[in-house]
Design goal:
Helices cover 43% and strands 19% of the residues. The protein is α/β, with parallel strands linked by helices. The protein folds into 2 domains: 212 residues, Spore Coat Polysaccharide Biosynthesis Protein SpsA, Chain A (Alpha-Beta Complex), CATH 3.90.550.60; 109 residues, no CATH class. Strands 1, 2, 3, 4, 5, 6, 7, 10, 11 and 12 form a 10-stranded mixed β-sheet that branches. A two-stranded antiparallel sheet has the order 8-9. It is globular. The termini are far apart.
C-alpha cells in the first residue's frame, strides 16, 4: 500500500451493538479506507466475530489490557502512511476522513504539513453540544477536552494548530509513531492520548483542528463517565503525567498549581460519589511514581519546552473558558493560581 492510503484502527471491548454502526460509518466514507483493523481487547460478547463477519481484519488480544495496548497493536499492523484511530462508540460523517486527509496532504499549507488532525466531535445524544475538539493541559497536570459540554458555536468552528488530539477519532501520519513512540501502555485507558500529545508538542510535532470534519461520540459507552474504574484510572494517570513529564524543578515551580488542580479534581470525584476510587487512583500513582519517572524528561536542556507547552495549554483553557462560559472547576483553579500563565 502506498500514497495517501489510510488504515483505520477500531479498538473494541464489548458493546457488540456499537460495532456494526462504527464499521458502517467507515465503509461509507467518501475517502475510501484501505483497511479496517478491529483490535478486540478481550471482548466476551461476540464483538470479534461480528467484526470479522463485516469484513474487518480482526486481531484478538485474548485478555483485556486497556485502550493503549489495543491501539499499539493496531499501529504495529499498519502498512499505510496514514493511520486513523476511531473508537467503537463514534459515528463519522461521510466526509470526515476526506476532510482530514486533505489537511494532511495540502502542500500549500504554510508552516509545513501537520503530523495529525482531528475534527469537531459532537455528543451523540445531544448533537448541539461539543463532546471533544482538542485537548489542553494545565500546569497542575489536569487536562480539559476543550469545549466538552458546551453548546456548539463560533468558538469551536475555527481551524487552528493544536498540540494534542483526542484518540476518540483522529488521523495520524504513521511515521509520527516512529518518531514519538507508541502510546504508553502503563496508562491502560484514559489520558494516554494526553501523554502522547505532550510528547508530540515538546518534540515540535503539531497537528490541526479541522472543525468541518464532524463525528458524534456516545462517550464512555463501556464503563460510564464516573464509573469507579474510570475514576480510579484517571486519578492514577494524572499522577503518571506529572511523574513522567515534570522535572524536579518543574514540580517545585508548579507545586501550588499541582495541589490545586489535583485537589479540585478529587473534590469533583467526591461530588459524584467516587471519592474512594479517586483516593485509590492517586495512591496507586504515587506507589508507581519511580516506575513511571524518567530521570531527565525529554533529555537535558528541553525542560523549558515542556514548561512552554504547559503554559500555552493553560492560556488556551483560559481563553476558551472566557469565550464560552466558565466551569466551576476552572473558575476556582484560575482564582486560586493567580499570576500564572496568562
Amino acid at each position: 500500500m502506498s500514497g495517501g492510503e489510510v488504515t483505520a484502527i477500531v479498538p473494541v471491548w464489548n458493546r457488540r451493538d456499537l460495532v456494526e454502526r462504527a464499521l458502517g460509518g467507515l465503509r461509507a466514507q467518501t475517502r475510501p479506507v484501505a483497511e479496517v483493523v478491529v483490535v478486540d481487547d478481550g471482548s466476551q460478547d461476540g464483538s470479534a466475530e461480528l467484526a470479522e463477519s463485516l469484513g474487518a481484519r480482526t486481531i484478538r488480544m485474548g485478555s483485556h489490557g486497556g485502550f493503549a495496548r489495543a491501539v499499539n497493536r493496531g499501529v504495529r499492523e499498519c502498512r499505510t502512511p496514514l493511520v486513523a484511530v476511531v473508537n467503537n462508540d463514534v459515528e463519522l460523517a461521510p466526509d470526515w476522513l476526506e476532510r482530514l486527509v486533505r489537511v494532511l496532504e495540502d502542500p500549500r499549507r504554510p508552516g509545513g504539513l501537520p503530523h495529525f488532525a482531528t475534527g469537531r466531535i459532537l455528543r451523540a445524544g445531544d448533537p448541539q453540544r461539543i463532546d471533544a475538539t482538542y485537548d489542553a493541559l494545565c500546569r497542575g497536570g489536569t487536562a480539559w477536552r476543550v469545549g466538552n459540554g458546551r453548546l456548539d458555536g463560533p468558538a469551536f468552528q475555527e481551524p487552528r494548530e493544536i498540540g494534542f488530539a483526542p484518540f476518540t477519532a483522529a488521523l495520524f501520519r504513521a511515521e509520527l509513531f516512529e518518531k514519538i513512540g507508541l502510546l504508553d501502555e502503563r496508562f491502560e485507558s484514559y489520558l494516554e492520548d494526553v501523554d502522547f500529545g505532550l510528547r508530540c508538542a515538546v518534540a515540535g510535532c503539531a497537528g490541526r483542528y479541522v472543525p468541518d470534519a464532524i463525528a458524534w461520540h456516545e462517550g464512555s459507552a463501556t464503563l460510564g463517565t464516573w464509573h469507579a474504574e474510570t475514576t480510579r484510572r484517571i486519578a492514577r494517570n494524572q499522577v503518571f503525567l506529572i511523574s513522567k513529564h515534570y522535572s524536579r524543578r518543574m514540580i517545585w515551580r508548579y507545586g501550588w498549581p499541582i495541589l490545586v488542580a489535583q485537589g479540585l479534581w478529587c473534590f469533583t470525584a467526591v461530588r459524584h460519589g467516587r471519592g474512594w476510587a479517586c483516593i485509590q487512583g492517586k495512591a496507586q500513582g504515587l506507589r508507581r511514581w519511580s516506575e513511571v519517572r524518567e530521570p531527565l524528561p525529554y533529555g537535558r536542556g528541553s525542560e523549558g519546552r515542556a514548561a512552554e507547552v504547559l503554559c500555552a495549554g493553560e492560556r488556551e483553557i483560559r481563553r476558551v473558558q472566557r469565550e464560552s462560559g466558565q466551569d466551576w472547576y476552572w473558575r476556582l483553579y484560575f482564582l486560586l493560581t493567580p499570576g500564572g500563565a496568562k
